[in-house]
Amino acid sequence: MPSYFTPELFRFLSRLKRNNDREWFLAHKDEYESCVRQPAIRFVTDFAVPLFEISPHLVADPRSTRGSLFRIYRDTRFSNDKRPYKTHAAMRFSHRGKDVHSPGFYLHLEPGGCFAACGLWHPEPATLLKVRTAIVERPAEWRPVRKLLNWDDAGKLSRAPRGFPPDHEFVEDLKLRDLGTAVEFTDKQICSSTFMASFCRACRKMSPVAAFLSSAVGLKF
Predict the structure, then answer these.
(1) Of 201, 202, 208, whose CA–CA distance to 147 is shortest?
(2) How far apart are CA 66 and CA 60, in angstroms?
(3) Which one of 41, 91, 121, 169 has the largest count of C-beta atoms within 10 Å of its C-beta?
(4) SS3 for 213?
């Protein structure tokens, strides 16, 4: 098995964090291409086959634009933080035609902070309502899925959402605004020749969450 990522990826991202400006990035763009973008594109391309085995409805898209790999450029239009570049690399594997907020898989590469994730992050109110309704209507299906949730619940409601019973078995889950699970990796694991297999195992482990949330919002898994 090939090793897709090397320590040079993390060294580049660490240096970018210290030199987050256009002049520095343009002077080191070849390094970004060779250490970050091209290895990520190869990873996305090769993940297509095992992803199809996990779910034929999710896509690993190796296109340079609007594909699975997120752009390195930050959207600063509505942010007080005007740093132009992200200091991590990220890939999404979503339902075809859906954005990052669909319940697919996500891979985050950052020095000392690498993880795979699956779930719904800051969903629209209508989407969150569908999920909460599915939890109430399909408790037997939700019961094993909820055990996999491990995202931070900092945005959790203090009481049951309007229209839902405050004494429901899963009222604590109904209060959540973000629902998902994650598997952490060390930088060394990311650079290992076995990382593709490790990532596939993580996605299979998280797949019950993706399956339930997909069905709740009307998507196949």
Answers:
(1) 208
(2) 11
(3) 91
(4) helix
Q: How far apart, in whole angstroms, are the C-alpha atoms of residue 115 and residue 79? A: 25
At 10-62, the pLDDT tens digits run 999 999 999 999 999 999 999 999 999 999 999 999 999 999 999 999 999 99
Residue 10 burial (10 A CB sphere; 0-12, 13-18, 19+): buried
Q: Which helix (H) or strand (E) holds 200?
A: helix 195-216
Asked if pLDDT for residue 112 goes beyond 80, the answer is yes
pLDDT bucket at 100, cuts 50 / 70 / 90:
low
The token pair at 154 is: 């900092």
Residues forming beta bridges with residue 118, ordered by sequence position = 105, 181
Beta bridge partners of 106: 92, 117
69 phi and psi angles, rounded to 5 deg:
-80, 125
CATH no. for 7-216? 3.30.930
What confidence tier does 99 reach under pLDDT thresholds 50, 70, 90? low
